[in-house]
Specification:
Two copies of one chain form a homodimer. Chain A is mainly α. The first copy, chain A, has one domain (about 10-140): Orthogonal Bundle (Arc Repressor Mutant, subunit A). Helices cover about 70% and strands about 10% of the residues of chain A. Chain A contains five helices and three strands. Chain A has helices spanning about 1-35, 40-50, 60-65, 70-85, 105-140; strands at about 60, 85-90, 100-105. In chain A, strands 1-3-2 form a three-stranded antiparallel beta sheet. In chain A, a hairpin with a 7-residue loop joins strand 2 and strand 3 (about 100-105). The longest helix of chain A has about 35 residues, at about 1-35. Chain B binds a DNA duplex (30 and 30 nucleotides) through helix 4.
Chain lengths: ~140, ~140
DNA sequence: CAATTTATATCGTAATACGATATTGTCAAT
DNA sequence: ATTGACAATATCGTATTACGATATAAATTG
C-alpha cells in the first residue's frame, strides 16, 4: 500500500516537474519576446510562418491551425503584426480567396534574434525535458 | 549558399514544429481541464501543489515560483480555488506567517482524473518532442 | 447557378496576469 | 523590546488575449 501510494506520488511529481520545466521555458520565451519588442503571440506567429514546412509563407487558415487558434482570432493577430510591420499580406494567385502571410525584413530580423536565443535555451533544457518524458514512459505501464 | 539557407530554414522548421507540438499539448490540456470543470490555471495549480517534491502542500510563495507567477496573482488564483472547494488553506505551525495550501477531496479527485489523461497523452507525444529536441541538438554546433 | 470555402469585420464577454501600493501578522536579530 | 524583513492578503486599474456569435464579401468548385 505504501509503495503504491509512493508510485502515485512519484507520478504527480514527474508530471509537475514537466509542467514546471515547461512553464520556465515559456516564461523565458515570453521575456525574450518582450525584450525583442514583440508580444509572445507575435513571436509565435512569426515562427509559425517562417518555419512552415516547405514554404515560408502561410494562409490565414494554416496559421490558425499551427497556432491552435480560431480563424478570426488569427486575423486579429495578423492585423497587429501588419500594424507593427512585422508581416505582410499578399493575395494568392492560385486562389484569390487566400491571403499569403510572410515576414517583412523587420519580422525576419526579429525572428532571427529570437530563434537563436530559443535554440540555445532548448539545447540547455532539452535533456531535462527528455528525461522527464522518459520517466513518464517507464512509470505505470 | 543554398545549403546554408537550407540549414537555417531547417532550424526554423524544427523550432516551429516543436512549438506546434507544444501548442497542441497545451490545447489538449486546456480542453481536458475544462471538461473536468476547472480552468487550465486551476489544473496547473492543483498539479503543482500535489506534485511538489517531498510534500503535497505548498506555501503561497512556493506555488508562485512553481507556476512562474507573481505572489499576488497566485493569491488570487488560490482564492478562486478555495471558492471552488478544490484546495484549502492551513496556517503553518512552524512559521505562522506562512499558509499551507493543500487539495481537498474534490481537488484530489479532479486532479487524479486529469493526471491520468495527461500521462497518457505525454506518452503518446513524448517521442515526437524528444526527437525534435534531439534534432535541435544536432543542428548548428 | 448554387454551395462551399476563405478571409474579414464587429460586438460583447471572459479569463488572466500585471504594476503599484498598502496593510496585517509574524519572525529574527540586535 | 524594538526594528527590520518576510509572507500573505487586499484593492484598483490596466492590458492582453481569445472566444462565441454573427455577418459580409469575394472566389472557387461542382
Amino acid at each position: 500500500m505504501a509503495s503504491a501510494k509512493k508510485l502515485i506520488k512519484a507520478e504527480y511529481e514527474t508530471l509537475a516537474a514537466f509542467r514546471y520545466a515547461l512553464r520556465r521555458f515559456i516564461h523565458f520565451s515570453e521575456t525574450a519576446a518582450h525584450t525583442a519588442g514583440v508580444t509572445p503571440q507575435q513571436h509565435q506567429a512569426l515562427l509559425a510562418i517562417k518555419g512552415f514546412p516547405e514554404r515560408d509563407n502561410v494562409t490565414v487558415g494554416e496559421l490558425a491551425e499551427r497556432l491552435q487558434l480560431r480563424h478570426h482570432s488569427t486575423v486579429g493577430l495578423i492585423d497587429r503584426l501588419v500594424a507593427e510591420k512585422l508581416v505582410m499580406r499578399t493575395p494568392s494567385n492560385q486562389d484569390r480567396r487566400r491571403v499569403l502571410i510572410q515576414l517583412t525584413n523587420l519580422g525576419e530580423k526579429t525572428l532571427e534574434k529570437l530563434s537563436a536565443m530559443h535554440h540555445e535555451q532548448l539545447k540547455r533544457i532539452g535533456p531535462e525535458l527528455t528525461s522527464l518524458l522518459e520517466k513518464l514512459n517507464s512509470t505505470k505501464q
